[in-house]
Structures are given as structure tokens and as C-alpha cells.
């Protein structure tokens, strides 16, 4: 696999949809994650990220214009003990609840599949970061239709032990814009993680398509102390 430049991946793709980045900061001290949402419809664009406990939730920017809340209003980020869960839908709660009952990350997602939004059948993408006693590992998952066939759900989980400093993985819902939207293919993309949290946040936001970007969440977690720094950027202010 060839390492890609995340800025280039973003600024050459008008519609990656929703995306999750997980990795490790260049100085090796922090676990890093980012989650962004984009939208083509007025309903999808009418959103902001707001904090909720240790995580975040999507919320209608103008409640009077909210049409269908299903698939767009959910908690993308929740924290369970030593784990931070990041997903593109209400499967965040599925993972949280099932792991609380003793299941693994992968087991928790076996009862879920792609989103019921044919003909796109948008993949459900999920990630989990585990930080304990100074060690760090993470995993990413994608649940997708079988090349657009809704009769079969393909499930892939990728795990990363002891991630290298300055590197990460990027997974997103769509390969590019289209109708229907083509689902993400292959392994999560291998990317560099550069800069401090403000530099990283600005780089991501500046390279997302101006017309379609909606909100961005970035978190750095100190692996030794578990202290967190979080940034949220909303196009609707």
C-alpha cells in the first residue's frame, strides 16, 4: 500500500461522504481521531456537531427545517471506559451497549448492516481507539452491500496494534460523487498525521469540499495521561 496525502485525498474528492481518521500524532504522544460529515441535500446540510458528555451528537441547525431525522441525527462519538467509539451512524450506540455487555467491537456490529437508503446503501463505517496503561491500539470496520446488492452484507474489520507515530488510516463512505454513490473499496487508506491539533483540524477543514462539507470533529488523547483536546468546526454557526 502506498501512503497517501490526506489533504490531496480530500481536495480531489468532491464527495467522500462521511469519514473517519484514526492514528497517532507525529510526536507519538497522542492518539488522534477525526470524523467529518458532508451533505448534498438541504436536510443533510442542516446539521451541526454539539458536545454530549465525553462525546458528540449531531443536531439540526434549524429545527424548523428538519425533514427526516433518521440516518442524520445520531451520536458519532461515545466513550466507554478505556475506549473511544467513532461511527457514522446510530451503530455508535450498538457498539457501546454491546461492548458494555462483554462483546468485542467486531461482535457488536454483527447485528447491523449498511444503511437502508437504496440505491446508495451507504456503508456503516466505525472505529474504536483503546488506550490503557500507556498502550494504544485501534480498529476500523465497514459494513457494506455486496457491490450494490442489498441481499448480502459484506463485513470487514481492520485492527492496528501499536500504531506508528505520524501515521494513520482513513476510511470514508463513498469513493467519489455519483448517482448512485459508489461505496468505499479496499483497506482504510494509509496517511500521514501532521501538526498539532489546531494545524491538523485546519488542514482537514480547508481541504474538504466547500459546497458539501458540514461539520468536523477532531480529538487528540494523550496516551500516557488520557487527557483530551477536542476541536469542533461547523459550517453552520
Give an overview of the whole structure.
With 237 residues, this protein is mainly beta. The chain has one domain (6-234): Glutamine Phosphoribosylpyrophosphate, subunit 1, domain 1. 15% of the residues lie in helices and 41% in strands. The chain has five helices and 13 strands. The chain has helices spanning 6-11, 42-45, 91-100, 105-108, 197-207; strands at 19-24, 30-38, 47-52, 55-60, 77-80, 83-87, 124-132, 135-146, 149-161, 167-172, 189-192, 213-222, 228-234. The strands form three sheets. Strands 11-10-1-2-12-13 form a six-stranded antiparallel beta sheet, covered by helices on one side. Strands 5-6-7-8-9 form a five-stranded antiparallel beta sheet, with helices on one face. A hairpin with a 2-residue loop joins β3 (47-52) and β4 (55-60). The chain is globular. The termini are far apart.
Outline:
The protein has 5 helices and 13 strands. With 237 residues, it is mainly beta. The chain has a single domain, classed as Inosine monophosphate cyclohydrolase-like (Glutamine Phosphoribosylpyrophosphate, subunit 1, domain 1), CATH 3.60.20.
Amino acid at each position: 500500500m502506498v501512503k497517501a496525502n490526506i489533504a490531496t485525498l480530500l481536495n480531489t474528492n468532491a464527495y467522500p461522504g462521511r469519514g473517519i481518521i484514526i492514528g497517532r500524532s507525529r510526536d507519538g504522544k497522542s492518539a488522534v481521531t477525526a470524523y467529518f460529515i458532508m451533505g448534498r441535500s438541504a436536510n443533510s446540510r442542516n446539521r451541526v456537531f454539539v458536545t454530549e458528555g465525553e462525546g458528540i451528537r449531531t443536531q439540526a441547525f434549524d429545527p424548523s427545517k428538519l425533514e427526516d431525522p433518521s440516518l442524520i441525527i445520531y451520536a458519532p462519538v461515545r466513550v466507554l471506559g478505556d475506549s473511544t467509539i467513532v461511527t457514522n451512524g446510530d451503530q455508535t450506540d450498538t457498539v457501546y451497549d454491546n461492548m458494555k455487555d462483554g462483546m468485542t467491537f467486531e461482535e457488536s456490529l454483527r447485528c447491523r448492516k449498511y444503511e437502508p437508503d437504496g440505491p446508495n446503501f451507504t456503508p456503516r463505517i466505525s472505529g474504536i481507539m483503546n488506550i490503557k496503561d500507556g498502550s494504544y491500539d485501534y480498529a476500523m470496520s465497514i459494513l457494506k452491500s455486496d457491490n450494490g446488492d442489498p441481499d448480502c452484507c459484506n463485513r470487514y474489520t481492520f485492527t492496528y496494534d501499536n500504531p506508528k507515530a505520524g501515521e494513520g488510516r482513513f476510511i470514508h463512505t463513498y469513493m467519489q460523487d455519483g448517482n448512485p454513490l459508489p461505496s468505499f473499496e479496499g483497506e482504510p487508506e494509509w496517511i500521514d498525521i501532521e501538526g498539532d491539533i489546531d494545524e491538523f483540524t485546519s488542514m482537514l477543514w480547508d481541504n474538504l469540499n466547500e459546497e458539501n462539507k458540514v461539520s468536523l470533529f477532531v480529538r487528540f488523547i494523550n496516551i500516557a495521561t488520557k487527557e483530551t483536546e477536542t476541536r469542533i468546526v461547523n459550517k453552520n454557526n
